[in-house]
Write a structure and sequence with these properties.
By secondary structure, this protein is of the alpha/beta class. The protein is built from 13 helices and 19 strands. The chain has three domains: 125 residues, Rossmann fold; 229 residues, Alpha-Beta Horseshoe (pyruvate-formate lyase- activating enzyme), CATH 3.80.30; 56 residues, OB fold (Dihydrolipoamide Acetyltransferase, E2P), CATH 2.40.50. It binds 5'-deoxyadenosine and iron/sulfur cluster.
Length: 438
């Protein structure tokens, strides 16, 4: 039996694509391996959102040259967002000749044909269809966990934030048909799935490309009615599209989890405008205010970019001010990374690396104590946890997530994995909680 190894970079969308690749290879009779040294087929599912992720991929590809020399039968494939870019494909073709198959984000379903073509010709195979809708409805996935699953509800993005490469790698926004999403989730529920995370670059604009009048709130309501599903999450939201109707859903839909990930990116109106985000800090704070009023125990997380071109000390202070006002439970912070082909890459006033790093550290110093204080509020309460796994370092400690998506560690038996249980929170750290099952 041939063995495959997949290395995934980037976001949940990529993780889920890798699950689809795994399903495709399993259907072809391959067997998964977690050790790339013993694999016959190695796949890199890449991310293009920041330069650091790209550099890591190139570093790894370089290392594989040796492996390929030792095992000439090894087949190497690279896919994902980086491969959607012609300039990067050219680099791979010229400098990384050990790569045998290149495919894009839209044609995972063609993988069996690409492998056959490579086996027949022995020549590098490239397939990066720009617009292939088949994968979007007809490809199953090898879910990493049976009790929680990702479900794509839409693909692509139309927003063209000026820093972001995604609209160029994942193409225009398109929504999946509701029936198809709902039947996928019903199947998942029948197989023991309790938690679904609906995926899209901007789930709040779900439905805009459908022929009928059906939006994200309608979809949430329909999913809320599916027996067996206990928790609904979604990623990611754009503040400009977060509607009052969605906020109302938090009050009326019992399965919708009390967490919202709402990327702010910057707290300065000048920078938000230059990023083409289409909201102001005032708009954003108003939405947060409404959400907090509707759902007082909501956890709020965000994405923040530090050092966008033109960001002055005052602009950055406004970002820190938003952090203090919203009191985020946690945040992903990023150093601005130039992406060739985007508008911001051409902007004059790029921020010095040293300043970016210094601001990044100050941002963490502002975020962390607030995250800790929010976590400490849960001490002494009983929270619902979906048990996910045993801890990496200790077999006797389990971890899981609260409805608000906070990570909890507690002692327990492996047989609890996949179950919803109550845990009493006893202590809190910046990024995790600790407790005892009750
Ligand atoms: N540089 C830094 N961060 C970026 N992001 C997207 N593009 C860039 C970039 N060029 C961040 C944004 C987005 C998250 C997924 O990645 O914060 O929300
Ligand atoms: Fe990129 Fe903006 Fe689209 Fe998010 S909404 S994927 S940041 S362009």
């Amino acid at each position: 039996m041939k063995k495959y190894f997949i290395q995934t970079y980037g976001c949940q969308m990529n993780e889920h694509d890798s699950e689809k690749i795994a399903w495709t290879l399993d259907s072809m009779g391959y067997e998964i391996s977690y050790n790339r040294e013993e694999a016959d087929f190695i796949i890199f599912n890449t991310c293009a959102v920041r330069k650091s992720a790209e550099e890591r991929v190139f570093g790894q590809l370089g290392e594989l040259k040796d492996l390929k020399r030792r095992n000439p039968n090894l087949v190497l494939a690279v896919c994902g967002c980086m491969m959607q870019r012609e300039d990067i494909r050219d680099v791979v073709l010229k400098k990384y000749r050990q790569v045998d198959i290149i495919f894009g984000t839209n044609n995972i379903n063609k993988l069996p044909q690409l492998i056959t073509r490579y086996n027949e010709t022995g020549k590098t195979v490239i397939d990066v269809d720009e617009d292939n809708r088949e994968i979007e409805e007809n490809l199953d996935a090898n879910r990493t966990y049976s009790y929680k699953s990702y479900v794509n509800i839409m693909y692509g993005c139309n927003n063209f934030c000026t820093y972001c490469i995604v609209p160029y790698t994942r193409g225009r926004e398109r929504s999946r048909e509701p029936e198809s999403i709902i039947s996928e989730i019903k199947d998942l529920a029948l197989n023991g799935c309790k938690e679904v995370t609906l995926l899209g670059q901007n789930v709040n604009s779900y439905g805009k490309t459908l022929e009928r009048n059906y939006n994200f709130s309608d979809l949430l309501k329909d999913i809320n009615n599916i027996d067996g599903i206990e928790r609904i999450r979604f990623m990611t939201s754009h503040p400009k599209d977060l509607s009052d109707e969605l906020i109302e859903c938090y009050k009326t839909l019992d399965k919708l989890c009390n967490h919202v990930h709402l990327p702010i990116q910057s707290g300065s109106n000048k920078i938000l405008k230059s990023m083409n985000r289409k909201y102001t800090r005032e708009d954003y704070l108003l939405i947060i205010d409404k959400i907090k009023k509707a759902v007082p125990d909501i956890a709020i997380t965000t994405d923040i970019i530090v050092g966008f071109p033109g960001e002055t000390e005052d602009d950055f202070e406004e970002t820190l001010d938003i952090v203090r006002k919203v009191r985020y439970d946690s945040a992903f912070s990023f150093l601005y990374s130039i992406r060739e082909g985007t508008k911001a890459a051409k902007m004059d006033d790029q921020v010095d690396d040293k300043i970016k790093h210094e601001r990044f550290n100050r941002l963490q110093d502002t975020l962390n104590p607030i995250g800790l204080e929010n976590n400490e509020k849960l001490i002494g309460t009983n929270v619902e946890v979906l048990v996910e796994d045993v801890s990496k370092n200790n077999e006797l400690v389990l971890n899981g997530r609260t409805r608000s998506s906070k990570l909890v560690h507690f002692p327990g038996d492996k047989r609890l994995i996949g179950k919803l249980i109550k845990v009493r929170i006893e202590s809190a750290k910046t990024f995790t909680l600790e407790g005892t099952a009750v």
